[in-house]
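#help-structures

NK: newbie question. if I give both the sequence and a SMILES, will the prediction place the ligand too? trying with zinc ion
OV: yes, paste both and it writes out the complex. here, I ran yours:
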Amino acid sequence: MSKKQQAIEFLNRNRHLFQCPVCSNTFLGVQEGSFVCKEGHSFDVAKKGSLHFLLKPSKNDYGKEMLRSRFAIAQDGLFNGILDEIYPFIQHHTGVTLDIGCGEGSHLDYLHGKGLQGTKIGFDISKEAIQLAAAHFTAAFWCVADLAQSPFASHSYDTLLNIFSPSNYDEFSRLLKPGGQVVKVIPGEYHLYELRQALYHGDQEKDAYSNELVFKKFKEHYPDAEIKPVRYTFALNGEQTKHLLEMTPLSWNASQEKIDAVLASGLEEITVDAVILMGNKQE
Ligand SMILES: [Zn+2]
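OV: that's the protein plus ligand as structure tokens.
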């Protein structure tokens, strides 16, 4: 069965998980290759099986080069230590998992590979990211969507993953089933420390992350939140140093001189420092 055919079957079987981003009505199913709502708004299923729900083109800063670099270094395992910590918390919570801001799909694919059961949907506002996900991974149904005009149905999701990606807590509440959970990952104080040192040494504002506000806001929405820090180092070869530089927005404001210096000398290792926030929607 082609990827497109699989996607059509998925949508017909799971149309209750979606709502029309134009009129919020339910979807009737796929007709002649398009996912059609009750009011007749329609969205074409792409050849690779992904779906484009954006009503207007999005501007985002994720170029193809950046996404390919993130894909490559994710495949090499840069984020696996974080995902290995998340897995025990979500593995018994099967049902429907939605990865919010899934990028090129590596995280959801890895969790699927570890044995995460149930229905999985990944979405991102970047069309290029979803094209990469749909080309490489069959772990989930992939779509281009905007959290601010979300095509997902209310109270339909058991687990929301939100890994290094913006949140919208009102929308999270609408999407979650009662008792459903949110797993959010934010950078810790020492995230990519070696790279920040190399690019911004001596520049206080740029070389420290502060996540206190994010923290506080999460606690307001999920008072029983569990917080789990995770920190490890990841050895880098020259190619991986290049991918790391291309992947992270950290290099956007750095001088070319410093970037060239990092490329020339390489980084031996990089610190991954993250904080995992886990909260349950009150029943
Ligand atoms: Zn509609």
